[in-house]
Amino acid sequence: MTKRVSGKIALVTGGASGIGRGTALALAAEGATVVITDIDASGLAETAALVRDAGGKAVTHMHDVTSESVWQEIVAAIRKDQGALHILVNNAAIYPSKPIHEYTMDEYRAVQRVNVEAGIALVQALTPAMITKRWGRIVNIASITFYGGWANLMPYVVSKGSLVGLTRSLARELGEHGITVNAISPGAFPTDAEKIHPDPEGYTRFVLDHQSLKRRGSPRDIAEATLFLVSDRSSFITGQTLNVDGGWVMH
Q1: Residue 214: strand, helix, or coil
Q2: Catalytic residue at 95?
Q3: pLDDT of residue 1
Q4: Residue 37 forms beta bridges with which residues?
Q5: To 10 degrees, the CA torsion angle through 113, 117, 118, 119?
Q6: What is the pLDDT of residue 2?
Q7: Cβ(121)–Cβ(68) under 8 Å?
Q8: Which of 69, 64, 82 is nearest to 11 (CA)?
Q9: Per-residue CA distances from 55 to 30, 34, 83, 180, 206 (Å)
Q10: pTM strictly above 0.70
Q11: 53-71 pLDDT, tens per residue?
Q12: The pLDDT value given to residue 201
């Protein structure tokens, strides 16, 4: 059976753990060479080792996603060593939680730089080669918090709403070049981001009460949705946001 992304080169940001790691593993298993970035050196190395142990190909770059100049250097290095990138998964994000009046504007801007602006800078660096090849896949990882407007997460919710807008704008602009751009909105997944909740068991009960499906999601659930959106099986889908949340938010 032909692998879904055989021969493609895919970049996954925030790949040291959680959804990013699961996505990198799934892409590699389906034939892609995965380029993984993160600021967590040990987690990054562990993800790469897992990919290679499974027979896949992985390249890692440790850096802060908000540095535009470093992105240009990394994209140039990838192009030189692996070739032009075909797939981008914008996954890196930060997730602070506190009441609105306690955020400083610098804290707000920091979330936008990581969650939105870093992805824009990367798209700018990657799309010229995608346009030349007339093939590309971009997946932005949004969040169902955008639809629910959760309390105490104002900068995060704003950033994820921005990603939905970015997805639609890029899809409209890049479609004529054979590039699709979609978003995935995960529900509540048991990743490191949940460490902000003081009562893990109570939070799990809260999640299951709201979901239609009565199990916690796993990074593999997001990875499978991503695989569909970056494969030729979804070549006529663009500008869409897919909720992968166990039936929590329906619209």
Answers
A1: coil
A2: no
A3: 62
A4: 13, 61
A5: 140
A6: 74
A7: yes
A8: 82
A9: 11, 12, 20, 28, 39
A10: yes
A11: 999 999 999 988 888 888 8
A12: 83
Identity of the amino acid at 91:
N
The alpha carbon dihedral of 156, 249, 182, 39 has a sign of positive
Q: For the chain, which residues make up each domain, given as ranges?
A: 9-242
One-letter amino acid of 212: S
Cα 170–Cα 175–Cα 179 angle in degrees, nearest 5: 85
Residue 100 has pLDDT above 80, yes or no: yes
> What CATH superfamily is the domain 9-242?
NAD(P)-binding Rossmann-like Domain (3.40.50.720)
Buried b / exposed e along 209-224 (16+ C-beta atoms within 10 A):
ebbeeeebbebebbbe
Q: Which one of 103, 147, 156, 203 is the catalytic residue?
A: 156
Arithmetic mean of pLDDT over the chain: 93
